[in-house]
Write a structure and sequence with these properties.
This protein is of the alpha/beta class and 348 residues long. It has a single domain, classed as sialyltransferase cstii, chain A (Alpha-Beta Complex), CATH 3.90.1480. 35% of the residues lie in helices and 8% in strands.
């Protein structure tokens, strides 16, 4: 009997021991995966996998095109030059249209005082008569994301000689020239392509077919002149004798808006001089109809002489000292436009 009790007690102890061992084993096996996960070393390749998860916009290089056009940079893009933004007004209408023949009273008063005409005529009637002879401008000056309008504004400085800029100038979408500019015999340096030619009656020249005649009207008589020069030829005088007829496509004539004159005078040349020069107005005009602007042939030549590239007299710099324009201030504005990345000024 006593032996039987010992056997039962031994069996009980063995059972308790078995249960303790089993419980310990189960707990250990359940904790082992967690311990292995927490202590697992990070593979060396983990950082590279993390980098690939960075959004592409953060990993990409700087943009290779502008915002408002498809050029690498666009004139109308904001946020790149506070100095430029304070002066550039994209709402300005660079040219007159048949639909908008009225000129604000203060602008009209300023413009009519630039070079007074003897006749007292109603401005709107003169403009309406003009658009009976010339066509409404086809230009769309609004920037578009899908296009890049590259323009070369070519001045008449003697610094163009031996520049070999001709092919570069011709590569632009639009090539703007002015006044008595000629290309014959100078193609290597100035190119031979012209899409826009700025004139006023006293600087008028005949233009090839397909070229936009861009009239700078410094007085009311100039609007009458372009109407006459493309039709009857009756006007032969302004303050001096002028061409009574000019060869140009009537459907490609553009007349710069007098309000645009005042805008250029107030915002860009800041009333230095009586009004901006043709060269200055051409650049400001280009800023409004082009997405990218390159400027050639402005300033003195490499010897400091001011003259036109087709002139033999290298000391004929009268156009710089007319007393009407402030050449020094305009030069500083052009240099600033280049520094701010709004134009590309080609200098020698």
């Amino acid at each position: 009997m006593q032996c039987k009790r010992k056997v039962c007690l031994c069996a009980l102890l063995c059972g308790i021991l078995f249960l303790m061992i089993a419980t310990h084993t189960i707990q250990k096996s359940s904790l082992l995966p967690l311990a292995m996960l927490e202590s697992r070393p990070v593979p060396a390749t983990t950082p590279s996998r993390t980098l690939t998860q960075v959004p592409p916009t953060l990993a990409m290089p700087a943009p290779t095109r502008g915002v408002t056009c498809s050029c690498p940079s666009c004139v109308a893009d904001k946020g790149r030059s506070e100095w430029f933004n304070q002066r550039f007004d994209p709402q300005q209408q660079p040219f007159l249209t048949a639909q908008n023949t009225s000129i604000p009273p203060l602008t009209l008063k300023w413009w009519l005082a630039l070079q007074r005409s003897a006749e007292q005529l109603k401005v709107e009637e003169v403009i309406q008569r003009m658009f009976q002879v010339i066509s409404n401008p086809p230009l769309d000056s609004t920037p578009q994301e899908t296009r890049c309008r590259r323009c070369a504004v070519v001045g008449n400085s003697g610094n163009l000689l031996r520049s070999n800029y001709g092919p570069l100038i011709n590569s632009h979408t639009n090539v703007i020239r002015m006044n008595k500019a000629t290309t014959a015999g100078f193609e290597k340096d100035v190119g031979n392509k012209t899409t826009h030619h700025f004139i006023y009656p006293e600087s008028a020249v005949d233009l090839p077919s397909g070229v936009h005649l861009v009239l700078l009207p410094f007085k009311l008589r100039d609007l009458q002149w372009v109407t006459s020069a493309l039709s009857t030829g009756e006007i032969k005088m302004t303050y001096m004798r002028v061409k009574d007829r000019v060869q140009a496509d009537k459907d490609k004539v553009i007349v710069v808006n007098p309000a645009f004159f005042k805008y250029a005078n107030d915002k860009w040349t800041e009333r230095h001089g009586r009004y901006p020069s043709t060269g200055m107005l051409a650049i400001i005009f280009a800023l409004h109809i082009c997405d990218e602007v390159s400027v050639f042939g402005y300033g003195a030549d490499h010897q400091g002489n001011w003259h036109h590239y087709w002139e033999d007299n290298k000391f004929a710099g009268a156009f710089r000292r007319t007393g009407v324009h402030n050449a020094e201030f305009e030069t500083q504005v052009i240099l600033k436009l280049d520094t701010e990345g709004k134009i590309k000024l080609h200098k020698r």
